[in-house]
Amino acid sequence: MFKLSALWRRPTSCFFVALGLCAACGMSVAAESRLTPEHVGTPVAQAPAKRLPRIVLAGPGAVVTYPLLHMVETGALSQFADTVEFRLWQNPDQLRVLLAKQEIDYSATPSNLPALMSNRGDPVKLLNISVWGILWLVSRDPEVRSFNDLAGKELLVPFQRDLPEVLLDTLLAAQQQHTGGAPVKLRRTRDAQDAIALMLTGKGESALLVEPTASMLLWRARQHADITLHRGQNLESAWREQFPEHAELPQAGIMANSHIAGNTQLNAAVQAAYTESAQWCKQHAQQCAELVHRYIPQLPVEPVQTAIELTRLESRSAAEARPQLEALYGLVADRYPQAIGGKLPAATFYGP
Fold first, then answer.
1. For the chain, how many helices (H) and strands (E)?
2. Residue 90, SS3?
3. Is residue 217 a contact partner of residue 137, using CB atoms and an 8 Å limit?
4. CATH classification code of 2-132+250-349
5. 135-246: which CATH topology?
6. Consecutive sets of 10 residues in the chain, 352 residues long: mean pLDDT of each?
7. CA distance linking residue 34 with residue 76, whole number of Å
8. I need a surface site. Which of 68, 87, 319, 335 has the fewest CB within 10 A?
9. pTM for the complete prediction?
């Protein structure tokens, strides 16, 4: 039996049909025990001592979320719960609300948010880091190829009070101190769609965008003969140049909400299933993009495929990635201690 929320059902003899989600409506996709199509891989979970009635996975429309969709599609956690659902969220503020209300169990997350929650006394756990590069510079200025080329120029930034903003500000401050060049003129936009509109109408020269938004903008620009945009440097490359001692940038992964963080068996199963699904997505970028489009129809296949191909999607347990995480947390804490709650998380924070 397959359903959208609690209202729509199909016979058990049918394969799961992935459906588009309406984030504004809080719509979710749910999956019960299902057959696994050969082309989307196989589940990996082992049966737990106690079966749960429901597990809710969540994430934004970014690459870090795509393995979660594959997990729902293949029934990778079907041995652990009667129903596995997916919730789409739009921004970190919405994620915080969903976590506080315990409406979701596991979610894709920027790496600083669970650290902040943990340091505020909420016993969440970070299970893994899977995205190590997702921010790209896009420009109409042929002279702007790297972040150094932005000196004295305007950059559209659709981030507010979240990790990409912290990383960008940290990078630009270090870059200006090193080169002595003119500061970059940051122009905050309401969101990524606002930045895209400004770029397509010629009201913006350069923008820093998360994948798949960067690929989406370039894809849309190619449909207009009078718009010429190009992909510049990614932030991770600039970060390696500026901070060679902290070359890896653990940006996003999967967290367990506080009410389920103590379920170590399930945490390990989620991490194992996610790792396998991430490998499948990376090895089958077009099929993964088609899967994403079925769940989130507003994301076209071509730019999503490009985003998957360009993103470093490599799942490591949080315990394994702890040195890189602590290096990032320490660097960020020097300028924005409030972004992680002022200190490094305890050892028990690093899962699964």
1. 11, 14
2. coil
3. no
4. 3.40.190.10
5. D-Maltodextrin-Binding Protein; domain 2 (3.40.190)
6. 29 26 40 39 49 95 97 95 94 90 96 95 97 94 94 92 85 88 92 94 95 96 93 94 89 96 95 97 97 95 97 96 94 86 94 90
7. 9
8. 335
9. 0.83
